[in-house]
Model the fold of this input.
Amino acid sequence: MLGSTHGTLTTDSRRARAIACGERSGPAVHARQGEAGDLDVSGRPLHADVPDLDRFFRPESVAVVGASDEEGRPNAGITRRLAGWTARTGARLHPVNPGRRTVLGLPCVPSVADLPEPVDLAVVLVADPLPVVRELAAAKARFAVVFASGFAETGAEGAAAQDRLAAAVEGTGMRLLGPNTNLNAFEHFRDDLDGPAIALVTQSGHQGRPVFALQENGVRLSHWAPTGNEADLESADFLSYFAERPEVGAIAAYLEGLKDGRAFLLAADRAARRGVPVVAVKVGRTTAGARTAASHTGKLTGADAVVDAAMRQFGVIRVDGLDELQDTAALLARARPPRADGVAVYAISGGTGAHVADLAAAAGLRLPVLSEARQAELHQWIPPYLNVANPVDSGGHPVGDARGRRIIDAILDDPEVGVLVCPVTGPFPPLSDRLVADLVAAAERTDKLVCVVWGSPVGTEPAYRDVLLRSSRVATFRTVANCLTAVRAHLDHHRFVTGYRSPFDEAPRTPSPSHRKARLLMRPGERLSEHAAKQLLRAYGIRVPREQLVTSAAAAVRAAGLVGYPVVMKASGGRIAHKTELGLVKIGLTSASQVRDAYRELTDIARHEDIALDGVLVCQMVDPGVEMVVGVSRDELFGPTVTVGLGGVLVEVLRDTAVAVPPFGEAQVRDMLAGLRGRALLDGVRGRPAADVDALVEVVLRVQRMALELEDDLAELDLNPLVVLPHGQGAVALDALAVCR
Done:
């Protein structure tokens, strides 16, 4: 955990110091931030305004509706906590309760209408909040917080009640947090901690406790937004707001579902533009997790593969455990930008070093071999029979004297090393005390990242509590796994934001000429035949084989002559999904007699299976290549998504695909291809030529354009197989399936 020195900096001086010291590394923004009202070709926003939440987190006047000081009543405890919070922040508190003249010694008014002033924030503690919310909106309150539960998390009736709450504030200028939320926003945040802070967003208040507790280890927390059911204000609003706060070094989020997938991506994009890391736990990897999350806050969890891809696409770092959230957010908030991406492992035991080095390499970290000159330097202080190439094994004894610090400095001075990881498997005073002191002193001298894994399960040792946790420059962890996860996230984040170009800036804003042609081909609610689906592809400039649709054996023979032998013949109809399994594909036909026989056989099978045909396709036989699949489907959260992967008849078996949420650019497509397990097939294996990857990328981008322009018309699209020919020869969609909305 990165600790902190204590101080009494003002808010303004903290902001100035955070910017001046460069704790947050922002990208060079190459393109403009979109204007409010800017829409893409599908009518979706390309920019979202950042809500002004200053008066939510720092109100000058607060009303508590349903306030009480009667012992034993739940409202009394909440009222007391709010009274303590307003006293600390200097806000004026106004209790509201028709049954009381005073609460906690303060004058209590009977209704919202009797409040002595318009309030910045109103906390609603009544069981039926709707009438109060309407009164607050009429009284021009800026924010309302509704604690009551029993809304969307309970089913359709509760969802309808939640919709009425949202409608009550829509267009009024008042924003609402909740329902089904809590007091986390009004916790006691320590003001004696320095450095960039973590801002926290949670949809379940209890799940934020581990991150909030980081303050006890010296890590600063600036805000906590417990969003609850998100009838109005949602997680994306707080992400956008926090990304603009100069004191925020990282945003930590616990998400069970998303209210609006597009709003979340716009918020993540805003954070990426500003170089602010977002670390998130997102529930819903399993059916059980998704079901439980939906019952908790009533939001959609979305298909996990799509959520995962969307987060990666916009630089959100997804972790699984709250301990990972805690450790990764703390590191990213406070660590300086890396000077190099090489990781060096330093241990006093060869076994420990080898073990951690194995784990680091498996985590995708680069462990450079130290130069011969550097190794010779280290062997001045380390016996020559010990390995110092990386990992570096000191053997233990040098740690106890001046050699220990020299070893650490020498490793950090290597230009290939950007991160030093030192595992301390357990306390062994006085050597471990000296080792820890040297690591802290070395970290103060360098701008490189120094990480220590304190393996003791006790955690009360002075070297840990009084030295490591008090250091603002050493990142201290309790497990190797969390350390490596955080280091990988740190390096990946800075790679991502360096030169970040927002996909929203490159999104098409006006329909292409292809759009008009394509819409004429759509048939609402129907699945198009292969022939019609290929016409759709042609409209967008996607190459398909030479082919003709025929309705007689004689026409098939004439078509084969025009297309050129050998040919492929396929039945074409809107109800045919898997032609090969039904025997409705004939390949390698080389003569007129074979074509006539094939026509009769295909139509006979269709009659026997009661399949309506619009004809038989006589197609060019395309040379072999790498068979891929490119498709469009719809996600309940994000709308249209585009998939690319290994295709052909084994697509369901291989399941080697990558997905992205539009808009995205060429670089994202290449990243998708790079992540495929079978990527080597495109590069050429076993003497085969490299495939035309550029042509494949172009097809994926054209399919994305289709997905955006035909969002209201196209439910599903599959190009399978898309044969990617050798480099320079293009890509051809041999088959296509399109389902209209």
